[in-house]
Amino acid sequence: IPSSALASLAVVPALCLAVAAIFGVLLAALMGWRSKMHRKKLDVNPEIITLHEETKTQKEVVILPEYRATPPRLLICYSGHDGPAHVKAVMQLGAFIQQHMATQVCMDLWDSLSIAEEGSMTWYCRKIRESDFILVICSRGHRQRHDTADPEVIHDDNLALMSNACSSDAIIQLIGEEVGLAKAQGEDLSKYMAAVFKYCKETDIPTELSLVSHYTLPQDLPLLFSHLHGVALHRPGGYLKINNITEEGFTTVPTGAALQLAIQEAGMMLSEKQQQTEDSSYCDRVDV
């Protein structure tokens, strides 16, 4: 075999090795790129899955506890000292709870005939015993005595409102005694609740109700629903969301919009009344 042919044959293995090395490098680069794209997909997929699970969770049907054959009975108590605007807000709250929170609401203004027959305190004592829950809407009027009540309330044409203005202090004391007795006997206090509208303060809640659950309305409507029906708002992997009772969605229904408007009007009237009181006090100090 000529020497030139032998030299050519010796180059062939080297060329094969070089081609194999280049092919290996290209294959390794391709595998690395595919692995990187796969990792990128894995980084995105959990978010998509989580979003899908949250969307699915929001659409799940929540079954209320079966031990209660009828809607829970809720007694709403309030003070008439803060005027008709505050009472209107309480009435709108009762209408909203009864229509959109699967609850049977009882208020003195809705049962004036029975109050006229039994008397205010007798009626309240009976309703406190019969109700599953008691919600006290606290306001500045609970810090006042009936002898210093607003003349506009005392001379109002609505007899039920006058009765409430004169008996709200006694009712709060009665409920406070019930709470204290239940606490002393180690009983559950979930029957009793206190709430304030957003134009009131936590300090408006009487001392007698310091041991019970407190809510600020309307933003705590979901918490109130959870309390009334014994369902958890949060659970592993999901949460309960009812559009008509969320802080953003309750105004989409007519009774929710009326509640929002009544709360705004009551807040404006109370602010104006407070400003007038402060101006009057300032003028008295200047005169002195």
Describe this structure in words.
It is a single chain. The chain is an alpha/beta fold and 288 residues long. The protein is built from 8 helices and 7 strands, in the order αβαβααβααββαββα. The strands form 2 sheets. Strands 2-1-3-4-5 form a 5-stranded parallel β-sheet, sandwiched between helices. Strands 6-7 form a two-stranded antiparallel ribbon. Strand 1 (73-77), helix 2 (84-100) and strand 2 (104-106) form a beta-alpha-beta unit. It is elongated.
Task: Summarize model confidence as the mean pLDDT.
Answer: 80
Quickly give the structural class: alpha/beta
> How many β-strand runs?
7
Strand content: 5-15%
Question: What is the number of helical segments per DSSP (H or I, 4+ residues)?
Answer: 8
Segments where pLDDT lies below 50 for 5+ residues?
47-53, 145-162
Q: Bin the helical content.
A: 55-70%
User: Roughly how many Å apart are the termini?
Assistant: 134 Å
Work out the radius of gyration. 34 Å
Specify the overall morphology: elongated
> Which sequence of SSEs, written as H and E, runs from N to C?
HEHEHHEHHEEHEEH
Arrangement of strands in the largest sheet = 2-1-3-4-5
Q: What is the oligomeric state here?
A: single chain
Main β-sheet description? 5 strands, parallel
Pfam family, one: SEFIR
Main location: membrane
Transmembrane segments: 6-31
Protein name: SEFIR domain-containing protein
